[in-house]
Amino acid sequence: MLQRHTDAADRMIGDIVLLVRLLKRAGPALHGHDSAGFPVLTRLAYEGPRRSGELAAAMCSDPSTVSRQVAALVKAGLVERRADPEDARASLVAVTAEGEQVLDAERRTRAARLTEALRDWTPEAREDFADLFHRFVADLQRQHDRQHDPSHHEDTR
């Protein structure tokens, strides 16, 4: 039984690696901008302005990496730094109107690619896959949080 679970995990890991490579190679960079900042831009658009450190933690990424991505997005005019109303010493990063436009165009492009890739799937199969994939990512996030945040550890006594 354990071997079957290990085989399935190995198959999924191989597929995930391939998926990441395919997504990185897919089409143009963020409509003329460096696509490395796409996850940062997306997170800010969905969750609103954040401090850079909070953003790095939420994305399970190194703060220096997120800082470089934010700097590139600021330079491109896609995000801006604003004073944090709760702490004048800190700044928040927020999506600009241009950033929203670029993100919207990129979302449409990526959605069209996925729609094309899944064109032979039934609507039910697409919904089932989306639900299971969301659950998979949420479970991985919870596992990560438990391993990296002591407040998420359960009492094992």
From TrEMBL:
<dbReference type="InterPro" id="IPR039422">
    <property type="entry name" value="MarR/SlyA-like"/>
</dbReference>
<dbReference type="InterPro" id="IPR000835">
    <property type="entry name" value="HTH_MarR-typ"/>
</dbReference>
<dbReference type="InterPro" id="IPR036388">
    <property type="entry name" value="WH-like_DNA-bd_sf"/>
</dbReference>
<protein>
    <recommendedName>
        <fullName>HTH marR-type domain-containing protein</fullName>
    </recommendedName>
</protein>
<dbReference type="InterPro" id="IPR011991">
    <property type="entry name" value="ArsR-like_HTH"/>
</dbReference>
<dbReference type="Pfam" id="PF01047">
    <property type="entry name" value="MarR"/>
</dbReference>
<feature type="domain" description="HTH marR-type">
    <location>
        <begin position="1"/>
        <end position="138"/>
    </location>
</feature>
<dbReference type="InterPro" id="IPR036390">
    <property type="entry name" value="WH_DNA-bd_sf"/>
</dbReference>
